Amino acid sequence: MAMMVHCQPDTPERKAYIKGGSTGFIGKTVRFKGKEAHAGGEPHLGINALNAAMAALMCIHAQRETFRDEDHIRVQPIITKGGDLVNIVPADVRMETFVRGKTMDAVLDANRKVNRAIRGAAYAIGAEVTITEFPGYLPMVQDDEMGDLFKINATQLIGEENIIEGVDMVGSTDIGDLGSIMPVIQPNMGGVSGDAHSQDYEITDEEAVYITPAKIMAMTVIDLLWNGAEKAIEIKKNFKPRFTRESYLKFMDDIVNA
Fold this sequence. Notes:
The chain is of the alpha/beta class. It has helices at residues 49-62, 104-125, 144-158, 175-178, 206-238, 245-256, and strands spanning 2-3, 6-7, 16-18, 24-33, 74-75, 78-81, 92-101, 128-135, 163-165, 184-185, 188-189, 192-193, 202-203. It has 2 domains: 2-22 and 140-250, Aminopeptidase, CATH 3.40.630.10; 24-135, Alpha-Beta Plaits, CATH 3.30.70. Helix content is 39%, strand content 20%. The protein is elongated and about 80 Å long.
């Protein structure tokens, strides 16, 4: 089993968020290949790969109304290379994106739509396109019994009124992968102001961020290992994995080789 603690964005108060989920995702890099030509003198002889990429962005955007609210699908592509020189028709354009969602079935469905949009846009412009998939993280499912132990110990340090259950993370975490084969928890703790991944993100309560989570996890480890690891053995016995190690590896290989 495994556990870790993450900070809860925009939560300066000493609070603990437990038993929430997270999104999973598939990542991809995309290369559009066109044909160079002088942008001022002979643009008609080129194939504009940047136009193909921009068309792909619009085609992906046009799919958004097909994403169900409960699936929490998020697709935010970025163009990492838009061409080589301003006076050359762009012939080598690169894009990256994640396709996130609440369940992997939803992610895989949205991913097919995104790939179709990319390939269709390239075809419309006459460009070639290469899509390279890479596995991201699986949606997180936290173990209830481990979460209960964490809650009991957190109550002693921050009070039960400051513990919030069932609030999902907006992002993704690699402990989601671990949670598919073993019991895990990843509570989120307050002590931070500002939004995640933004320049206004700031730790405002160092004890709440560094010390309190370490104490709660240490207390939880003691509870798990007490009396010959009786509680840990019980949790592992009750755990129902979504994957075996072998089926997990096959699932990831299938994403890469799709």
